[in-house]
TrEMBL record:
It comes from the Bacteria. Residues 7-170 form the Lipid/polyisoprenoid-binding YceI-like domain. This is YceI-like domain protein. SUPFAM superfamilies: YceI-like.
């Protein structure tokens, strides 16, 4: 496993108890790092629903294959509009390096909208290979993405998405 990107979505609304918080992952992406610069390109059309989150517990069988496919299709066509916006791009630079953490600042282009993005990545690992991990919280409305609603808004997604990065530090030159 060189790099892994997971995405977490959260439900809200009057009937939210019949909906699910979800864990997804991005299948097609590239991340390159050199001389303190980082460039990432993700294909939002390759985002796949892994399963349901129940608090901190992941349940891969919380949704059947048909429901996972339906949710994924809705996300690609109605939420992310991947035909109009086939790439998500981050361009940034390491602004500070310490033994246990790395500060990154840059710009995220999502849904055709560019916004500054800064985050702290933690170093972890052993002799088998050093990893860099981070959790980044995004607000979809900052990028022109309307929160998805169902049943006349009784179920909707929060205006919060958490992106979890697990990256190979050596492959990024960190």
């Amino acid at each position: 496993m060189t790099h892994q990107i997971r995405v977490f979505t959260f439900k809200e609304g009057l009937l939210s108890r019949i909906a699910h918080d979800l864990r997804l992952h991005v299948e097609r992406f590239s991340i390159e790092g050199e001389d303190g610069r980082v460039v990432a390109e993700l294909e939002p059309g390759s985002i796949v629903v892994d399963g349901v989150m129940d608090g901190a517990r992941f349940d891969p069988s919380g949704l059947g294959a048909s429901d996972r496919a339906k949710v994924g299709e809705t996300m690609r066509t109605k939420v992310l509009e991947t035909r109009r916006h086939p790439k998500i791009t981050f361009r940034g630079a390491v602004t500070e390096r310490e033994a246990e953490r790395v500060e990154v600042e840059g710009e995220l282009e999502l849904h055709g909208v560019r916004r500054p993005l800064s985050f702290t990545a933690e170093r972890a690992g052993d002799r088998g290979g050093e990893r860099v991990t981070a959790r980044v919280t995004l607000r979809p409305t900052d990028h022109g993405i309307k929160p998805y609603k169902a049943l006349a808004g009784a179920i909707r997604l929060q205006d919060r998405v958490v992106v979890e990065l697990d990256l190979d530090a050596a492959a990024l030159g960190l």
